[in-house]
Amino acid sequence: MSEIRAIARMFVARETMEGAGVRLHRAFGYSQIPLFDPFLMFDDFRGDEPKDYLAGFPWHPHRGIETVTYMLEGRIEHGDSMGHAGDVPAGGVQWMTAGSGIIHQEMPKPVNGRMGGFQLWVNLPRSHKMMDPRYQEIQADDIPVVMLPGGVSVRVICGEVGGVAGPVKDLMADPEYLDVTLEPDAVFSHPVKPGYMAAAYVFGGAGCFHPDTGDALSNRTMILFGEGGSGISVRALEEGCRFLFFSGIPLREPIAWGGPIVMNTDAEVRQALAEYRNGTFIRG
Tens of pLDDT along 24-72? Predict the structure, then answer.
């Protein structure tokens, strides 16, 4: 790899409340637009106390985005206006494309007293804001695990590692989404396409995310890599390291954000909210 991407910015996820009273940590969101383009928001909803998450996320609309829910422990029960119902178990992922509009609910549930996961929001380009809603739901056993030399394992949700492609496909932002585990002192190097943004979120152990810096970055740290360079390189410290890596092609389009609605203009957001209030939000 000829040149490693430098670290442009770092953010420590901050505690906030969402839904009907879910205590979570937000690594980036509205205040960071457009740094993570095409991604809009990243929430870490790992929780040790049921009172912090059982209220969940009751019925609410989405339009113009995709939401990616990745569970580590416990499960998320969900239902929607399309008559779809089910759950996302530990190790599973749900990639929901809201498109023209969907109304749904997501309710976290513990399993053996444990619950936790992440949700990433992906913006849709103007040309696909009003596409038909759809789901890609993947069980844990259907996500390939790639073992690399030197103590590296990668769960490939979407994108490709070592010639192995993830099961989530046909996405607008051409994203990669990887769950990377490094044994102590292991090194993970991975290419990033020219012009694509790239980021990593640490949720276990600690690591150095550029070979020229000795900074130990640990739990709930979001790293935004700079432009240029052909890839990233991460070295785990003595306790090992686990992190999510994601990349995608920036849309570079105007963003108008109104709660769960993300469009290109304020007028489009107002129209969506008016349709939600008068019962015409869901398109036939």
Answer: 999 999 999 999 999 999 999 999 999 999 999 999 999 999 999 999 9
Considering Cα of 102, then 118, then 192, then 14, what sign does the dihedral take? positive
> What tokens does 45 get?
């909803």
Task: Tell me the two tokens of residue 189.
Answer: 């190097």
118 - beta bridge partners? 44, 70
Tell which CATH architecture fits domain 7-278: Sandwich (2.60)
Tell me the C-alpha distance between 253 and 169, whole Å. Answer: 23
Instruction: Show me where the domains of the chain are located.
Output: 7-278
Asked if 185 and 236 count as a contact pair (C-beta separation under 8 A), the reply is yes
Q: What's the distance, CA 208 to chain centroid?
A: 21
DSSP state letter for 81: T
Cα–Cα distances (Å) from 282 to 62, 103, 172, 218, 256, in that order, read 10, 8, 22, 42, 20
Each residue's pLDDT tens digit, 126-154: 999 999 999 899 999 999 999 999 999 99
Do 248 and 39 contact (CB within 8 A), yes or no? yes
Q: Are strands 221-225 and 217-218 parallel, antiparallel or unpaired?
A: unpaired
Query: CA-based diameter of the chain, in Å?
Result: 58
CA 157 to CA 161: how far, in whole Å?
10
Q: Are 30 and 42 in contact (CB under 8 A)?
A: no
| Single pTM value for the model | 0.96
All residues at 6 or more sequence positions from 172 whose CB lies less than 8 Å from its CB, including other chains:
38, 66, 122, 124, 125, 128
Query: 47, 38, 42: which is closest to 12 by C-alpha?
Result: 42
Separation between Cα atoms, residue 198 and residue 176, nearest integer Å: 9
| Rounded Cα–Cα distance for residues 3 and 219 (Å) | 26
- CA-to-CA dists, residue 186 to 177, 202, 236, 244, 264, angstroms: 20, 15, 5, 16, 43
